[in-house]
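Reviewer 2 asked us to include a model.

Predict the structure of this chain.
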Amino acid sequence: MRWWRWALLLLWVVMGALIVAGLFVAAFFGEFSPIEAGDPGAVILFVPILTGFVLGILLTDEEIVVAAGAGVLAAVLSVVFVGLFLLSPVLAGVAEATNSYAAFLSSRIMLSTIVLFPLVVVGSVLGRGIGDLFLPSERMKEQLEELREETRRWHEALDRLEHRSRDELQLPEEKPPEQGKG
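Predicted model (structure tokens):
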């Protein structure tokens, strides 16, 4: 079943990368896009954070390092998909690669790289952290229950020590020898 979890993780990462890349390309070419993206700046800033956030929430069963790694992988795949989307007319043979096209392509890929990496990774780590608060995994619930049980045992042991020390204090005290008379 471990492979199933990793396959599901990879599926979420690829789907998130496709969403981010598709909306990035829609933001780059708003007038030609079938998707009404609205303000391109908002799309470029908020879609990677929200996608990473959802990815982090979906990974509450995993360690936070896995969520950060999934964010990095989603960012890398997003940049690759943005590059493929932008390069697709040349790959399909309907346009030819010119120097101006190469400059445009490289500028958009660099912009995507610079913007996507921090936003997707931060979004996935924040989503994982917030997801742990509201949707704790079974592993986390078990760890919390173990901590509660250990805390109960410590309190019981401290109560026993406290009762024992009280019992020792209630013993009749010996009278100190009287100080010299006289």
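The CA atoms of residues 17 and 74 lie 5 Å apart. The two ends are 91 Å apart (CA to CA). We have added this to the supplementary material.
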